[in-house]
């Protein structure tokens, strides 16, 4: 028996049987027979990509959703395709359209050998039609790997909810695992095609082959005589090639153990989800979840009027089964992976295997008394401890993973945002600013609020930090942030100056010289703090120029890097600049979650990088 980290999932009946682990192993030593197993010793003992893509270790749902083009609200339709298939042939028709329009080079689908699912890669329209009927037992995704070996570049994949979750983790792997992929003994990673479309199927669970065989034996049926299987309203129907129907209660079929801990009925991570629930007989329900999923409207005539409540009932049914399984496991002291808590932002794991939840900080760290009370109340409710972060955010620590989801939902209910963790724009840090600090030149709270509204939880290749300082004292260290913003006021001497010298006394950088009855400013030394303007008793100094000095590409941590000053800009330009920097950063990053902005700027060339940012702003 080989040591393998995934055994903690497989041996505890937590495995979803999605087969994702098997297709990403660069050494091809993970076999799959209902559940995965090692064929030979793994030098990493499973501490690699197989573990990191497993959707039962963690879903990665939050990070995937913020960067996957998901709609704020999914759209529900029903329709039928132009070919015979399960409940209207919508999936088959969509795949045919994608192939005809050259949007994909092939499709990874499930075929069959006597109704035992077999993973297939198809490029021919006829082959797609032959795979058009549902199989309700375990199918694998090994054809995805085959497609890569064949040189196929773009594919659509049809899969069950667990498989779609695993495939999404592959798509966004560097952002979740903090490395680009596992290198095999031959010095290469597994070559997989780009998954352009993920099409999910409604699923209550996968049945064990032997339980289906028992049901068939009751009616003296053979697999080779079967035309199709159907599941509706709690019944399992077998239709033979002769047109005869045999119906059995679903409870006579046995689910795989790993399906009992699944809570996703309608493949919520797919671009498009398809199933029979909620639509008229002979039609399919279509749920469009992403911008890319909109393409199905070009392939299938869709209508409104889906019975969404019917779908919600199935979701509730699956969720109740999930909760019963969790409770049973807790009573028996069985392992629970709590994979679902990463569906939420701001959730992190502590060294003692409890969790913390980070509440995204308020602009400039200002909280009302009532907000503080509510945070304290929630922390006390779940026995947590409170930590105040250096960005003015609250973290609630020592939360048992079973309570994480309830706590996050309670925080959301009370208007708090959980997040500011992982590869995204973190809470904008700001000093008290004008109106609060005597040195403040700008309203930092208002600017932080505006940046937060535009870039709150905005996806980035790595953590992306922004700081706003109300004056050149730079109390919040803007020069060592990815984007640092500083309010400045440069002075101009006017005719009211009488050479009293008060401005020179005030200036901390000795940029003012008094000669005779007037004062002079050395702009090579002046930092634009504006103190001389405020402090002149004769109103002999006025504002020559004011605005925002911006730094790009700074960082702290193991290595401190100072940002590049790009000069004075207007308030309206700040938002375009941030967006431009994020776009160019995302374009050139080679190692997400390993390359900070400053590293990418250095590799590309600071001048070239900033020139491209300028072009982005102009566009």
UniProtKB/TrEMBL annotation:
Keywords: 4Fe-4S, Heme, Iron, Iron-sulfur, Metal-binding, Oxidoreductase. PANTHER family: 7-HYDROXYMETHYL CHLOROPHYLL A REDUCTASE, CHLOROPLASTIC. The lineage of its organism: Archaea, Methanobacteriati, Methanobacteriota, Methanomada group, Methanococci. It comes from the Archaea. It comes from Methanothermococcus okinawensis. Residues 6-35, 489-516, 517-546 form the 4Fe-4S ferredoxin-type domain. This is 4Fe-4S ferredoxin-type domain-containing protein. One of its GO terms (molecular function) is heme binding. Signal peptide: none annotated.
């Amino acid at each position: 028996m080989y040591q393998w980290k995934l055994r903690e999932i497989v041996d505890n009946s937590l495995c979803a049987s999605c087969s994702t682990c098997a297709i990403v192993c660069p050494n091809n030593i993970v076999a799959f027979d209902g559940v995965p197993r090692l064929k030979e010793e793994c030098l990493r003992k499973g501490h690699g990509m197989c573990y990191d893509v497993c959707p039962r270790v963690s879903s990665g749902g939050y990070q995937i959703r913020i960067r996957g083009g998901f709609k704020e609200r999914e759209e529900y339709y029903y329709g039928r395709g132009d070919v015979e298939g399960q409940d209207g042939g919508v999936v088959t028709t969509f795949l045919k359209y994608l192939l005809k329009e050259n949007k994909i080079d092939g499709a990874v689908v499930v075929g069959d050998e006597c109704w035992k699912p077999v993973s297939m890669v198809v490029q021919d329209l006829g082959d797609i039609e032959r795979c058009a009927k549902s199989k309700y037992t375990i199918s694998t995704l090994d054809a995805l790997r085959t497609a890569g070996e064949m040189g196929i570049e773009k594919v659509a994949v049809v899969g069950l909810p667990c498989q779609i979750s695993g495939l999404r983790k592959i798509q966004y792997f560097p952002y979740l695992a903090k490395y680009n992929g596992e290198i095999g003994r031959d010095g290469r990673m597994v070559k997989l095609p780009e998954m352009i479309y993920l099409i999910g199927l409604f699923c209550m669970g996968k049945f064990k082959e032997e339980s289906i065989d028992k049901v068939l034996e009751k009616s003296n049926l053979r697999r080779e005589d079967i035309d199709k299987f159907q599941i509706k309203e709690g019944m399992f129907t077998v239709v033979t090639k002769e047109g005869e129907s045999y119906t059995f209660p679903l409870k006579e079929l046995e689910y795989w153990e790993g399906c009992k801990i699944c809570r996703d009925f309608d493949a919520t991570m797919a671009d498009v989800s398809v199933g029979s629930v909620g639509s008229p007989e002979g039609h399919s329900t279509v749920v469009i979840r992403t911008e890319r999923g909109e393409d199905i409207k070009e392939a299938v005539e869709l209508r409104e009027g889906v019975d969404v409540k019917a779908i919600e009932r199935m979701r509730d049914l699956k969720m109740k089964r999930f909760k019963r399984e969790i409770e049973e496991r807790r009573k028996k002291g069985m392992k629970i992976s709590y994979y679902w808590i990463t569906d939420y932002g701001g959730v992190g794991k502590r060294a003692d295997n409890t969790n913390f939840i980070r509440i995204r900080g308020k602009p400039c760290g200002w909280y009302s008394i009532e907000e503080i009370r509510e945070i304290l109340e929630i922390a006390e409710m779940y026995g947590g401890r409170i930590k105040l972060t250096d960005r003015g955010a609250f973290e609630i620590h020592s939360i048992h993973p079973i309570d994480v989801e309830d706590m996050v939902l309670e925080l959301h209910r009370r208007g708090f945002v959980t997040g500011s963790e992982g590869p995204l724009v973190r809470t904008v840090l700001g000093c008290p600013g004008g109106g609060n600090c005597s040195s403040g030149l700008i309203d930092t709270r208002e600017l932080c609020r505006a940046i937060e509204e535009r870039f709150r939880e905005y996806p980035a290749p790595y953590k992306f930090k922004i700081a706003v300082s109300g004056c050149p004292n730079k109390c919040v260290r803007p020069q060592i942030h990815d984007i640092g913003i500083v309010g400045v006021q440069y002075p101009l001497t006017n005719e009211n100056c009488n050479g009293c010298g008060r401005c020179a006394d005030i200036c901390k950088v000795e940029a003012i010289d008094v000669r005779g009855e007037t004062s002079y400013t050395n702009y090579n030394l002046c930092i634009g703090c504006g103190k001389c303007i405020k402090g002149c008793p004769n109103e002999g100094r006025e504002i020559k120029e004011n605005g925002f000095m911006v730094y790009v590409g700074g960082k702290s941590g193991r290595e401190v890097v100072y940002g590049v000053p790009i000069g004075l800009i207007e308030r309206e330009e700040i938002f375009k600049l941030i967006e431009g920097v994020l776009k160019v950063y995302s374009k050139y990053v080679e190692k997400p979650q390993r390359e900070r902005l400053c590293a990418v700027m250095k590799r590309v060339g600071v001048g070239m990088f900033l020139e491209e940012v300028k072009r982005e702003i102009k566009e």
